[in-house]
Amino acid sequence: MALNGRRPIGVFDSGIGGLTVVRALRARLPGEGIVYLGDTARVPYGSKSPRTVERYSIACQRFLLDRGVDLVLIACNTASANALDALRAASPVPVIGAVEPGADSAVAASRGGHIGVIGTLGTVRSGAYERALAARAPGATITALACPLFVPLADEGWVDADDAVARAVAVRYLRTLFERDPAIDTLVLGCTHYPLLRGVIAATARELTGRDLAIVDSASAMAEAAAAVRAALPTRVGEATAPGALACFATDTSRLDELAPRFLGEPVGGFELVDL
Amino acid sequence: MALNGRRPIGVFDSGIGGLTVVRALRARLPGEGIVYLGDTARVPYGSKSPRTVERYSIACQRFLLDRGVDLVLIACNTASANALDALRAASPVPVIGAVEPGADSAVAASRGGHIGVIGTLGTVRSGAYERALAARAPGATITALACPLFVPLADEGWVDADDAVARAVAVRYLRTLFERDPAIDTLVLGCTHYPLLRGVIAATARELTGRDLAIVDSASAMAEAAAAVRAALPTRVGEATAPGALACFATDTSRLDELAPRFLGEPVGGFELVDL
Description:
2 copies of one chain form a homodimer. Chain A is of the alpha/beta class. Chain A has helices at residues 19-28, 50-66, 77-89, 99-109, 121-126, 128-136, 150-156, 164-180, 198-209, 219-232, 256-264; strands spanning 9-13, 34-38, 72-74, 95-96, 114-119, 141-146, 186-190, 214-217, 246-250, 271-273.
């Protein structure tokens, strides 16, 4: 792919889970330069108030805009659910959140219109998925549940489908979810960490319902949305990055070398430490 | 107790677990005014690098000093383990950390000199407990293990001794600990959240070893140390607080009303939101 002279795409997340979005983006748009920022000093956002999430998200976006990106992807579901409007209002370039593409995927996948959403406390409390799903499928039955233990479980690496702790946690949460709606046919993984637990979540759901659920996340739908927006943007020369270049920044570097490859699916070249 | 004209004691923590220290302090020094700060917007510190922990801890201490405290207690084990020297260097008043009092308690409790320490990744990685214990009991065998799941488990409220998830997590960690030293007779709960899990930790340790371990934490030893230091300080009039007054501040207010009473052991009058 030839040097395209384009400004990079910016992606931010509360931590490094957003590298799952970078992975999908690189698969869909291999020639694009990407700047990634993980706010690892202040992670997680999922347990915090909308006010704090918005304040930190604005600072993350400002960092990306200062790096010359011409499109911003909010990989973090909590930030997307609580700060999308504020981020769009503060950005001169297009901003894509995680919730709307995730809702598109869920509606496309659901055969019976019974959709479950699992995510952080902040994402669930915001009601953002319910609103996005209801707008797309007015007759759908939507059940959302916060699953705070899933993120530390993924960070600990206890993610195998037969891991005793992972199974016990998944049974506890999913049992509650299916008690609220036994007919759920589609499950939205509404947090960038949850795809690492896809195996144990799928196995537990099958065990509890006797059925195979459609399990969707936002990453590939976000990459599709980015491709559509990017195709419509004028080519802006200057501060261009090499095609396919990935520059990673983080506000704290603890465990990055160990954790980041799990989400990106390949080695990460290294993170540059920044203060916001 | 008469108005003592003294400045308040300052206590800070990465979150609200440090209210266990406030609880011990109020039991030991009921007449003293206390200013508490939880850095709940940036919690947890336990997974982050020493540099970030030090930076945030200095900001917390500065807030307390600006409120006129004449003694600072670092309730957070991670901050104590990684930033005590920097905090003492930056403070004009005495500073008490969590590690040294915790080590005192452990050495006093241990009959066989085999001491286990559990805490956050940041606390364990620092080696601070090992150094403090070795200085007090040069012949002791010390085994430290990070248990990252214990904090979100306590926040989720899954703390009963017969809770299936709590038991599965405790078995996973403690089995590793006892494999490294089967003769451990004393266990240090090196994180302010862990006392909420004391029951399940004790039951699991008994199940795995067939023995009752001594289980210690830093809270009451810190209160003893505070009483000793306070007794030696001159009475400084001005900006005095009412006896027994507790003023609580936090950088994010999410779930405070729900979680704080678990740690303080009584209702909390309310938190004032502050930016650091």
